[in-house]
Structures are given as C-alpha cells and as structure tokens.
Specification:
The complex is a heterodimer of chains A (about 375) and B (about 325).
Chain A: E1 4-12, E2 17-26, E3 31-35, H1 42-50, E4 57-62, E5 65-66, E6 77-80, H2 92-102, H3 107-121, H4 136-148, E7 154-158, H5 166-183, E8 186-191, H6 194-200, E9 203-208, E10 211-216, H7 218-223, H8 228-233, E11 240-249, E12 252-257, E13 260-263, H9 266-272, E14 279-284, E15 289-291, E16 301-311, E17 316-322, E18 325-331, E19 342-347, E20 353-356
Parallel strand pairs in A: 3-8, 3-9, 6-7, 7-8
Antiparallel strand pairs in A: 1-2, 1-4, 4-5, 9-10, 11-12, 11-14, 12-13, 14-20, 15-19, 16-17, 16-19, 17-18
Chain B: H1 6-14, H2 21-31, H3 33-63, H4 76-82, H5 85-118, H6 121-131, H7 133-136, H8 139-150, H9 156-163, H10 175-203, H11 207-216, H12 220-248, H13 252-257, H14 269-279, H15 283-291, H16 293-312
Helix pairs in contact in B: 1-2, 3-15, 5-10, 5-12, 10-12, 12-16, 14-15
The chains are: A alpha+beta (about 375), B mainly alpha (about 325).
Chain lengths: ~375, ~325
C-alpha cells in the first residue's frame, strides 16, 4: 500500500514532448484512471511510473521513496499489459510464479501465493495449461494473477481490457473493481475508454496532448467539466457544442445563433454577463434534451428537424438539425418520430454548459 | 482418391454407350479433384525427381558397381571403405568439423544478433549489412583470400603473430592447425546466416515480454534464459538442422585450402568422395562415400524436427 506522487513530470522524445508538467497525487488505496485519446501521454506517464521509460524531468515518488533512478524490479509495482505479455512457453502456474521465482521466494510460499491468486480469479483449473490454450478473458485473468501474487505496493494497468470483446470487457471491468475493493492496493489504470474510466476510477485524470486537463471524481467530470475537451470526452454520445452569440434582450441574457435562441438561466447569467456581445460555445448533453410539451417554457425550447433515428431499445438517439447546427438527443424509447419530421425540443436550463471560445475553459 | 463430386458422377452417367465401363471409370478418376491436383503439380514433381531423386538413386546404383562400372558388386564398396583407416579419419574429421563449426556459428551468430539488436535502428542497418559480407561472397573466392592469410611465409596472420612475439605457424601443413583453419573459415562464412535468422527471430519477440520480465525482476542473463532462448527455440532448431546439412556437405573451403591434406587430416565426406570418385577415377567408391552422409543427416533431421513438432503441438 502506498501513495504515488508525480511532480512536474515531463517526457520528451527527440521531437515530441509526450508528457508535460504532470502533477498528480495518487492516494493510498486509490484506484485512479488516466484517460484520453491516443497519443495523449497517459501510457507514457504510466510507463514512467513503472520504470519502463526514462523520466526527462520531474520526480516520481512511490510510498516515501523517489524512484526516478530505480529499475522497474525495485519499485515494488506490478503491471498488467494490454496484450497480456504472458510467457508463451511457460504454464499458467510458471507465468504467475515467475516474479516470485526471480525474487527467490521459497517454493512453498510461491505455491501458496499462486494458489490463492488462482482461487481469487477462478483459474485453479488452468494452472497447468499454456497461454495459447486459453481464451482472451482467461489470459487476462492470468495476467492479473501474475500481478497480484507479488503483493506489490502499486498495480499498474495499461489498457488491460482493450483486446477483449465488448461483453467480456464489461464482465472483467466488474471483476477488476471487485478485486480492487478486496485487495485495497493503490492502482493506476490507463484506458482510452471513458466508460471504463468512469466506472472503475475513484478519481479520473483526463489527459490530452501530454497535459492533464482535469482530475476529479467521475460524476464531477461529467457535471462540471473544466473545459470543452473534457466535456466532449466524458459522456456518450458526446456533448453537443454550438457557437452562439450572447445578447441582451428584455433585461435578460440570451444566447442565440441561426435556428436557436435560448435564455441564459440565472445560475449562469452572472458569469456570462462579461461575454455580452461576444460569442461563446454552448454545450448541451444529449440526455439533457427531451421532446417539448405544451407546458415547456418557450425560453428553453427550440425547433429541430429529425435527420436520423437510432432506436437502441432502452432509448432512442436522434440526430437532428437546428438551423445550421447538427446535434444528438437521447430521448425516451416511446417517442414516435420519423426522419425529416419537425420536432420541438426542450432542454434543462440548469444543465447547460458554456465555454470560452478561445481558451475553451468552462465559464 | 475415390472422391467423386456430383458433377463428375453425372458425366459418368451421361457417358456415351460405346465407352466401356473401365474407360468411364478412368475418365471419372481423371476428373476428380485429386487428379487435377496431381496434374497441376506434375512439373514441380518432375523437377524434384530429376534434380533430387534421380541423382540420389543413381548414386546408390553407382555405389553398387565395380571401379570400371562394368559389374554389380553389391555392398563391396561399403565393406571396403569400412576397412580403411583413411575413411574412419574422414568420418572423425567430418563429425568434429560439423559439430564444432555449427556450434560456434550458432553461438557467434546469436551473440552478434543480440549485439546488433540492441543498436539504434540506423546503426543496426549498417552493421547488419557489413556482417553479411562473408555470407554473400563467393566461397571459393573468399577461401582463396583465407589461403593468403594462412600462407606461412608472407601472410598477414603470421606477421601479426611474430609482431606479438609468437612463433609463426604452418597453418595448413600441421594436422591440428589445418583442421582448425578449415573450421575457422567455415565459421566465418556461416555465422552471418545464423546472425540474420536470429535477428529476425529477436525482432518477432514482443517487447512486452522483456518489460514484463524486467518488472518481474529478471536480470539480463535471466531474460536471455527465460525469455529470449525459449522464444527462439524453434528458430535455433531449424538453423541447427539446416546448417548441419550444409556444413557436413562442405566442399569449397577444404578443396581450396588443403585439398584434404595434410595426410588426409582435413578431408570431409564431400572432398573425400570427390578425391576418390573424380580425381582417382573410382566413381562407385566415391558414390559410396557420399552416401554415408545420408543416414547421418536423416537421423539428425528426424530428431530436430520431432523436437520442433513436440514444442509446437
């Protein structure tokens, strides 16, 4: 058990500055997820913690030791790789025992630890098999088993579920969460899948272009994104963004653009006041849109034309046009609507998001 | 055989009345899929028969004749060889030469491959190219170069030895050093083949295995033992087999450097067969010598291939 501290962490390859001034405090027993698109620096950050990449500048502390100059084996970490990295010529048992054998653990202790881990993961039956005789899910379990037999201070996961099919991924996600609750080991988990990030992480770190964009609990990232990137990255389908002008009419603030006119709700009015006469980005999540009824105020409703209808069973996704803007709405499965039909939508005013057009920061 | 598709069966049924049943059966057979396969591979089969099977069986036939190739003598040639001390010397030299040369080629090839594999990509290309030179040079020509190096009075090798305070050697005239010299040239020539094959093998080992073993606490020697060598096992087996075949059949080096001397100490099966068959004109005896290579190679191929099959099944 240990905390991990990253201080002004930087990684530069010849031309590329892959990780920029990352400062992060992973608390003891915390499950933290680094998420972002490909090339955002999340894997590089993880590999620097593992000792597989040299640190260009900055400092990493695991527990109370600065580990910058320690080789991977002395950092007391265990890592699970995307393509499992099992030794193909060794049995499952030998794969799991390898790290202990290298550390010269007595045979009985190795057998006990491997047995315990196999039991936790439900792979006792597979111990004598070779990796190629296992399914993807079983291999992933063995890879996790190899990590937990070591009882390390920190678990590092590098996109461990990416090679699994969708159904198995959901199942393994739940198992990993359960495992973490049971072992209570500090874990750093890298993924590009925001659903994995939201469901697994005690806290989530969103990265882009080597910078940390925001660190927060999953729901905090969802409801209070720090900037337009986080807003668009977290949530599926992604948030709708529209370039709108802030205007003043009848003593209230409005945002408008071609085909859309919405009153600025009182919660935002104060901060948006400074943008009067300027353009900002309006963000509306698809789930914050619904089909308008007669009771809805005209201030928070607008007309659209249905472009595509995507019925998913539990909900319907509508691709719509509002003036020049294309947007997605997530509506009740009972809504009956056809393509090219007119549809009036209402929105939840308190859930609107506004972003500065230049800095892209949340207003 | 015997697989008849429905449409060929229909052809059979619709065959004109004057076609006899036997001929109709033949037609059906010819139209079956396996017959088409055989016909289409026939050119290659003929080529292999012409270039491999015919000479092989012809050698067996020759080895059963007398020196003037006028009479069948059974196994007399083989019996005669087994009573000759020179032949046993050739057997000994061939074994020693092949096993030492193959072993050292494998060790040096692997070492070179490991060293080149750790170089940055640009340097890798240069060194890979340079280290292939011995292998791509015509062997007869490079052997001539080595002959100059070994030349006792004016050569570079002895000059360096004297410079370092050692006494010069007659490299190709003393039995031990002649065997050593011939083996050394073969190692020099064959190492690049191992190097390039192992390098390709090393590149196919996933980097994660090394990263994972580094985290697991394996040092460089343990990574070699637990990751690299097991991952290269099949490639090592194949190269050993291939190289054993080629090395045992070595001809040029010995022919150019020593012609089998001194006192037959460097003769291999190939050069000895040539000496007896072509130079001395006893073709059947030469054929008998060369045929001794076959069972040796067959046995080693059997064991190596069985090993590979077992490890991959």
């Amino acid at each position: 058990m240990a905390q991990v501290l990253m201080k002004d962490l930087n990684k530069k390859y010849d031309e590329v500055h892959a990780v920029k001034d990352v400062n992060l405090h992973v608390r003891d027993k915390e499950f933290i997820v680094l998420v972002g698109p490909s090339g955002c620096g999340k894997s590089t950050t993880l590999r620097m913690v593992a000792g597989l990449e040299e640190i260009t500048a900055g400092e990493i502390t695991i527990g109370d030791r600065v580990v910058n100059d320690l080789p991977p084996k002395d950092r007391d970490i265990a890592m699970v790789f995307q393509n499992y990295a099992l030794y193909p010529h060794m049995t499952v048992y030998d794969n799991m025992a390898f790290g202990l054998k290298m550390r010269k653990f007595p045979k009985a202790e190795i057998a006990k630890r491997v047995g315990d881990a196999a039991e936790i993961l439900g792979i006792q039956e597979l111990l004598r098999r070779k990796p190629r005789q296992l399914s993807g899910g079983q291999r992933q379990r063995v890879a996790v088993g190899r990590a937990i037999v070591r009882h390390p201070q920190v678990f590092l996961f590098d996109e461990p579920l990416s090679n699994l099919d969708a159904k198995l991924r959901v199942q393994m996600r739940v198992e990993l969460k359960r495992l973490h609750d049971r072992l209570e080991t500090t874990a750093i988990y890298v993924t590009h899948d925001q659903v994995e990030a939201m469901t697994l992480g005690d806290r989530v770190v969103v990265m882009k272009d080597g910078w940390i964009q925001q660190v927060g609990e999953p729901l905090e990232l969802y409801s209070k994104p720090a900037n337009r990137f986080v807003a668009g990255f977290i949530g599926s389908p992604a948030m709708n963004f529209m370039d709108v002008a802030v205007t003043d009419a009848g003593g209230a603030l409005w945002v408008e653009s071609n085909g859309l006119r919405v009153k600025v709700p009182p919660v935002h009015a104060g901060r948006l006041g400074a943008y009067r006469g300027q353009h900002v980005t309006l963000g509306i999540r698809p789930e914050d849109l619904r089909v308008a009824t007669g009771a809805d105020s005209g201030d928070y409703a607008f007309d659209t034309v249905v472009d595509v209808v995507e019925p998913l069973g539990s909900e319907i996704l509508l691709d719509l046009k509002a003036g020049d803007h294309a947007l997605v709405a997530r509506v009740e499965p009972t809504v009956r609507v056809k393509e090219h039909e007119q549809l009036r939508l209402a929105l939840q005013p308190e859930r609107l998001h506004f972003f500065d057009l230049k800095t892209e920061l949340s207003i | 055989m015997g697989r008849v598709s429905p449409d060929t069966a229909a052809v059979h049924a619709a065959a004109p009345a004057r076609v006899t049943p036997a001929r109709a059966r033949l037609l059906v057979r010819l139209r079956s899929r396996s017959a088409v396969g055989i016909v289409m591979t026939l050119p290659l089969i003929l080529l292999i028969v012409g270039l491999v099977a015919y000479p092989f069986f012809y050698a067996i036939y020759l080895s059963l004749l007398n020196k003037r190739e006028t009479a069948f003598v059974g196994l007399d040639n083989f019996r005669f060889l087994l009573t000759r001390d020179t032949f046993w010397l050739v057997v000994q030299t061939s074994f020693l030469f092949t096993s030492l040369a193959v072993l050292w080629k494998a060790i040096l090839g692997l070492t070179l491959a490991l060293v080149i594999h750790t170089l940055p990509p640009r340097g890798q290309r240069v060194w890979r190219g340079l280290s292939l030179i011995p292998w791509v040079m015509p062997l007869a020509l490079s052997s001539l170069g080595w002959w100059w190096i070994y030349e006792p009075t004016h050569s570079a090798l002895n000059w360096v030895l004297v410079l370092l305070g050692f006494s010069p050697k007659s490299w190709l005239a003393e039995p031990f050093w002649a065997r050593f010299s011939v083996t050394l040239v073969n190692i020099w020539y064959g190492t690049p083949f191992f190097m390039i094959t192992y390098l390709a093998g090393l590149k196919s080992i996933p980097q994660e295995l090394y990263e994972s073993s580094a985290i697991d606490g394996a040092n460089a020697a343990q990574r070699l033992r637990y990751v690299t060598l097991p991952m290269l096992k099949n490639i090592i087996a194949i190269t050993l087999l291939f190289s054993t075949i080629v090395t045992l059949a070595t001809f040029d080096i010995v022919r150019v450097l020593t012609r089998g001397g001194p006192r037959e100490w460097t003769h291999l099966f190939g050069t000895y067969a040539f000496e007896l068959g072509i130079a001395s004109g006893d073709v059947p005896l030469g054929a008998a010598v060369s045929l001794f290579m076959f069972p040796i190679l067959a046995v080693s191929a059997f064991f190596i291939l069985r090993g590979i099959r077992r490890s991959t099944s």
